[in-house]
């Protein structure tokens, strides 16, 4: 039954048509994409680049691969490739790429002569993991996103980069190509808006790493610098406003227990067992220990997936000190509404289960909270 539901869910994304106007997205919204392609094309650049995001909004490294079609999509078994092409009714090995990525935008194909001489298409694969979203949360904790960056050129030599995405990268390579959909900045689909936002954030992180100027970074590139954990912990306590509702003694206990988790997690396990929060027979679980510690320190709204939205509305109203009503019931929509209507935002402590542990902080401190969380391995996220 679960497998059938998953199949139906993936079918949702097969039905929408490509809007050729979406190709303009790269000119208006992602002007840095040609520079990313050029960076990957440099002779001294390794064909694969892996970037560790400094934010818990990503559940994996951001990986870019400079690759070629069809050679990089072929397996070691020609018969399997032949069967895969037959399954998708492709007349030849180039057809999946050309029909999916080039034909909708009237991009020219390689000539027959070029193909006979082992000519290929170049592209960049970009993939990473993000917290699962919507219906996918029932089946996956992390959603793997794969994007295809397809370069083409105008007559004046200007490069354009079209972007496609695939939600099912576990398919055979040729099938992943025909399943790909264009990433449309004008989409009204809430899922596609989520992927678009994730991609945009990933592009900014990549540009910071490659030192590519964007409107956002203005040529100011931030390189990760090791910061003392103790100082980060003090800053975290300060910017989430803990001192406004916890005593100095409670804060000291939090610090001591955090150090205990780092140095002697078995001892902290004993504390949780004695308090009835942990099973004595279970193995040490540092992510759970950290999540529990944070949930005790912060003022949190804790709920399973059946959220009482009246209670949540009251919690938010009290925290932001103004009346707040919930209309859209996706957590990310609620967080966006808080940011639009107040100086605050909402973040989540990842419980590793189908539940929430939400807290409110100043939106001006949001990015720094997430950055510190990443560095201290705090399971705090801005996606729900």
TrEMBL record:
Residues 258-381 form the DUF6630 domain. Pfam families: DUF6630, DUF7821. Residues 31-213 form the DUF7821 domain. This is Uncharacterized protein. It comes from Riemerella anatipestifer (strain ATCC 11845 / DSM 15868 / JCM 9532 / NCTC 11014).
